[in-house]
């Protein structure tokens, strides 16, 4: 039985864009199938919003092309107007029309009879838990409620693709989590292909099926959130997702000596400078040996001694900063619950070798 090939809902091929001689996008390519949430993640100025603007049709690329369901939407010669691309937009400043009711905002741009429009508006407002506000004015709603109206408006015409640019950054943290989850559930139900732009790694990991990590106009790594977090492509990628500690060393015979013991570094020439990266939650405090000295048979390698410089309770965990005796560097460890040793307290530390990343120094 012959299987029919289904093209991606959105396909971006080789986008290039420069402004004033500065390369803003450099060969950006990716695809998104229907029903998938993909996140463009990266620091400000890396090219995320420019990519979104070109897909939406409000900016033009210098090179490359965009296809929707296998049909060409634009290249450097041909261009479908933005309003005919079946692409919805949702931005941080969701900009509801203040003179229109909630129902009129959601129905804006919808085709069909008055009854058909009202039915679609009622359906969406019910799904975002705002049916009781169907005839309210925007100024009578909270920020979170306005955000949900904006989502309903973006989804009302049943776009094949929804572009979202920092859509939740204007909300307080607790409200943001709730609305993010509600939004994700609704988008999955609608089967919309979503391209979300954010500089917040926690937001990307919470919402995305796939993350595209951007830096300096290029996609430097792509994959599921779990894979990007646990297998970062380089030190910068690791640091983008969380705080990190960095040990430095030089390769000697496929090993890199550190105060925590030798690390395997195969494939690197002798003398190569390397960074050994470990996150604070994987720096272990050896409570059993606090003051008795190191045990060379310790499962996690050789312990090294540090002196507590500062300890703070962060709500769910404690952050303890250590001044290390071997070189005076500062390493940070996170400990579940409340752990607040006094400054000046010496302790032995070990590191989870299976949770370390080794990268050539740049």
Number of domains: 2
CATH first level of the largest domain: Alpha Beta
Strand order of the largest sheet: 6-7-8-3-9-10
**CATH H-level homologous superfamily name of the largest domain:** P-loop containing nucleotide triphosphate hydrolases
User: In the CATH hierarchy, what is the architecture of the largest domain at level 2?
Assistant: 3-Layer(aba) Sandwich
Give the mean pLDDT: 90
Number of distinct helices: 8
- Looking at how many chains there are and whether they match, the oligomeric state comes to single chain
Largest sheet: 6 strands, mixed
Distance between the termini: 52 Å
Which stretches are low in confidence, meaning pLDDT under 50 for 5 or more residues running? none
Structural class: alpha+beta
Domain ABC transporter: 10-241
InterPro entries: AAA+_ATPase, ABC_SmlMolc_Importer, ABC_transporter-like_ATP-bd, ABC_transporter-like_CS, ABC_transpr_FbpC, Mo/tungstate-bd_C_term_dom, P-loop_NTPase, Transp-assoc_OB_typ2
Keywords: ATP-binding, Cell membrane, Ion transport, Iron, Iron transport, Membrane, Nucleotide-binding, Transport
Protein name: ABC transporter ATP-binding protein
